[in-house]
Write a structure and sequence with these properties.
Structural class: mainly alpha
Number of strands: 0
Strand content: under 5%
Order of helices and strands: HHHHHHHHHH
Shape: elongated
Distance between the termini: 58 Å
Largest sheet: none
Helix content: over 70%
Length: 281
């Protein structure tokens, strides 16, 4: 948290302007009920039609003011959050670059990607839209509660009780969902690791122009598995025909020296035949 406060301190003037815009927009929003009250009490009931034009102009001015300050608030929070997120990613990357090779041997790529992307994204959101929304809700609710209690404190307890109930349910659900999102983050780290390993393998194969060889090797491995399964089906398992693991090499040599070896549709070796036997074993 101390490190986070350091980033916020770099842009304190921006956050000060954003909070000022937020408070101004909320105060303007609070004027709507007051203007509506005057229209009902003074114009409709009291018959003071000369006030209607001024009140309608007031509604327009309040709407324009809310739009301007609301835009300034959201734009400023988003810009500051993006700057903090970018700075944190750069500092985190510089820190990772300074670590020893042992750290990278013990930590997989997916874990690093999750820290650099997912965790920084959460802080980005907290410093931007989510943080702005929390502050706005606190200020808005405080002002609304003040207005309600100043009008009728007995009736104000009805929405207050409902608000407390909704808040309690939200906290309970958030704690349950937090575990789910944590599991999703860990799974994303695993998926990223698998994807990185596969992409790295693809790049290596392409770098040495070995695509056709890898495809043939994959087909060859599949053929081994099919032949091993056929051996099990025809003759049973190795235990059932009293074959020991130490006999497999000699069996492969005998099979390779068989006169039928020359008639194979593709070249083979003792090692290939022994691999087939071991898969069947």
């Amino acid at each position: 948290m101390k490190k986070l406060y350091t980033y916020i301190g770099r842009y304190w003037y921006g956050y000060l302007f954003a909070v000022f815009s937020m408070v101004t927009a909320i105060v303007l929003d609070m004027l709507y009920p007051k203007i509506t009250q005057q229209i009902v009490d003074d114009v409709i009931i009291g018959g003071k039609l000369e006030l209607l034009t001024k009140l309608l102009v007031g509604i327009v001015i309040v709407g324009i003011g809310r739009s301007i300050f609301g835009y300034c608030k959201e734009f400023t929070f988003d810009v500051l959050a993006s700057k903090i997120g970018s700075a944190m990613r750069k500092d985190l990357f510089d820190h990772i670059q300074s670590l020893s090779m042992g750290y990278f041997e013990d930590t997989n790529t997916g874990e690093l990607m999750a820290r650099v992307k997912d965790d920084v994204d959460k802080i980005w959101n907290a410093m931007g839209y989510v943080g702005m929304l929390v502050i706005e809700v606190i200020i808005h609710v405080s002002m609304v509660l003040y207005c309600m209690f100043s009008l009728n404190w007995k009736l104000a307890f009805v929405p207050l009780a409902t608000m407390i109930l909704c808040g309690t349910v939200a906290i309970i659900m958030e704690r349950k969902l937090d575990k789910i999102y944590e599991d999703i983050s860990e799974e994303n780290a695993v998926l990223t690791t698998v994807a990185e390993e596969n992409l790295a393998g693809v790049r290596t194969v392409k770098a040495f122009a070995r695509e056709k060889h890898e495809i043939l090797r994959e087909h060859f491995s599949e053929g081994f598995l099919r032949e091993a399964e056929n051996l099990r089906t025809l003759y049973g398992t190795a235990d059932e025909i009293n074959v020991k693991e130490e006999d497999l090499h000699q069996l492969a040599v005998d099979a390779f020296n068989d006169v039928c070896t020359g008639g194979n549709p593709r070249p083979t070796s003792v090692e290939d035949i022994e691999t087939l036997y071991r898969k069947a074993f």
